[in-house]
Amino acid sequence: MDIRQLFSGEHKGQKVTVRGWVRTFRANRFIALNDGSCLANLQCVVDFEQTPEEVLAEINTGAALEISGTLVESQGKGQQFEIQADSVTVLGGSNPDEYPIQPKKHSLEFLREKAHLRVRTNTFAAVMRVRAALSFAVHQYFTKNGFYQVHTPIITGSDAEGAGEMFRVTTLDPSQKTDETDFFGKETNLTVSGQLEAETYAMGLGKVYTFGPTFRAENSNTSRHLAEFWMIEPEVAFNDLDDNMDLAEDFIKAVLTYVLENCEEDLTFLDQRFAQEEAKKPQLERSPMGLLERLRFVTQNEFMRVSYTEAIDILRNSKPNKKKKFKYPIDAWGVDLQSEHERYLVEKHFTSPVILFDYPAEIKAFYMRMNDDGKTVRAMDVLFPGVGEMVGGSQREERLDKLVERMRAMDIDEEELWWYTDLRRFGTAVHAGFGLGFERLVLYTTGMSNIRDVIPYPRTPLNAAF
Ligand code: 4AD
Ligand code: MG
User: Fold this and answer.
1) Which of 30, 48, 394, 398 could lock 368 by a disulfide, CB 3.0 to 4.6 Å apart?
2) Is residue 241 within 6 Å of ligand 1 at its C-beta?
3) Which of 209, 389, 397, 441 for mutating ligand 1's site (highest number of atoms within 8 Å of CB)?
């Protein structure tokens, strides 16, 4: 039986059997057992006089045990139930001199090196359970709202973002140029986004979403970038940018509400952890809200909606703090915003999530719909405190002539994307969508500070261990 089920109390007084891993063993008597089903350990009290020496000797941190006994109300502090063990079987021992996850605080950096074992710590188990709950909430939200999931290809021939940060897929010697002897007979790569294919499906199924891995060979060694990350991309026919902003806001609020309601134990633990971590920072850099407070704030307040042009005006008239200027000064309309600018807007100026929209065409992808001013496109980014860009999306250019014009100007291969322009030839219509980086959502929800700690096996430059 799962330890989580036992904590419900239903089985009080009954004989039960549990299996899990030893977190601690005290006084030759008290085993704290964890099976991953919930944060709390189950205390198992062994009668050392009845338990063979060899068994006692093998009850070490990390060992896998099967314990049978009676579930009783606990006498000790801190736990409601415990097992009075009748029998303890060691399923798999764990040499205490070699097992790296000892019952003490390990640094996150150390645990990254032990990524195959770090899920046996409270922090990582809590993060990964919340991650799983968020994933479920994503599917639940879209299914409830009439969206169909589409599985877009992972190997593609197109560069959806036109940014060229792709991993090549080939069966040839890597030094060889792709020709008809290569597996696909053409250049292929791991997808950077399922958007373009999702658009084709939205123009037939109406409301669709993807939720899959995406790959970017950008050399950004930051706490918010991965080379392999999971992206959620809804795409909706007949939606314009305002509808798209409404969808993004409603979606984020819904999934956060789901975890607030369903992951109380883990979030309370992560809230305490977050408070401890924040307390180590200089006063000025601390989050003004606790983790749970921050999550509730997002679910209860409207996101600010601000155009790029308004944001530039705000930034031009702002100083990030008393003395300093921005490292990248905002000297002209049209510059791309750096994370310091985004953070200033979100954390200092508005102190809430912000949706920036109508960006200069020059700094955005070819598929975004041109505004009548001829210089801005119907793009939107949703910015969050601490995390920066959580969502990037847009209304798509549905007019064939304008799309082709932009593709030419931006050197996008028209022949490769013949099917994409076809959509504008047959039954074209206004449509819009966005991409949400799943790990950034997990990062925000759990209050962790490095994206490497919210995915089981992070892939980053020079790191693909495990
Ligand atoms: O803004 P991006 O590049 O947008 C797209 O890919 C569009 N095709 C989405 C669409 O309209 N369907 O990426 C979307 C989101 C970002 O806002 C960010 O949250 C996340 O994906 N993201 C990353 N997350 C982790 N590591 C990286 N290297 C990321 N790059 C983007
Ligand atoms: Mg973006």
Assistant:
1) 394
2) no
3) 389
